[in-house]
Design a protein that fits this description.
Blueprint: E1 2-10, H1 14-30, E2 34-42, H2 49-59, E3 63-67, H3 74-84, E4 89-92, H4 104-112, E5 117-122, H5 129-145, E6 154-161, H6 162-169, H7 178-185, E7 189-194, H8 208-222, H9 225-255, H10 262-296
Parallel strand pairs: 1-2, 1-4, 2-3, 5-7
Antiparallel strand pairs: 4-6, 5-6
The structure holds uridine-5'-diphosphate and magnesium ion.
Amino acid sequence: MKRISIVVPVYCEEENIRSLYKRLEGVTKCIKNYRWEYIFVNDGSDDNSFLVLQKLAACDRKVKVINFSRNFGKEIALSAGVAAADTDAVITIDSDLQHPPELIPAMLKKWENGADIVIAARKNIQHPLYRKLGSKLFYWTMNKISQIKMISHTTDFRLIDRKVADVFKTMPERSRIYRGLIDWLGFKTEYVEFNASARENGHSVYSYRKLLGLAINGITSFSAYPLKVAGIIGLLITFFSSTLLMIMFPVRFIFNPVYFSSLSFVVVINTLLTGIVLTCLGLIALYIENIHNEVISRPLY
Ligand code: UDP
Ligand code: MG
């Protein structure tokens, strides 16, 4: 019998845990020939989530609970859950019921047919326009500047095969985005689509500040592109201001026109220096990128 773990990060979800558990049970009871385990990771909730989880664990041996000493964030909670699972496949799912457990049979089917990663993608998204735009911009930048392909609308609701989980565990970086790392790994990936529903209880704790932080983290941990852009701007500024200087010098000394005053020289020289400094920043970016790649020491392949 194949064994499957369901990893659920939990942060202040006391009202959602039981209904999620019931829906998971509804689904897993109907699927024969698998052994299930639910790994709930309590990410330092301030409410009674841990108590609710303990009660569940007391009634059901399938339920395991990891309890964090404080809030470490969803990405870390997911990593802890995946690290704790030793089953043939691991499914990660949100505890706020935005990811329908009823999708699990479809995911399992794709996995059985040979996919190593099965990703649930949202069909309709009920976020406000500016958040949609923000997310579009993020994915666009990510795909432009980094090696990996990230597909928008994909979620952390994913199934990963044992072998993917094993490589994932060797990924050493501290600031991490679960999705990004899984995408970086490659493997045979399949998608299933679902209609995202609104959060059942409580509210999303991802404030826009947190989301922005996540986006910045995602971008900076996958490329030194922003710094390189500074370098490119620097090169352009250096080029234009030195050309301007080369024109200004002879023109001023031959014709001595009023509009090439000493002040305008100072301005252009200042711009030139700024350009040189920015160019150097870009140069440093190349070194930082190398250091970054060495320091995170991801597996080579
Ligand atoms: N979560 C977590 N730690 C955090 C924030 C969130 O474990 O610091 C969990 C939360 O309980 C939920 C999932 O991550 O199961 C997604 O959180 P949320 O619904 O707030 O995010 P969104 O759906 O807006 O991406
Ligand atoms: Mg949510």
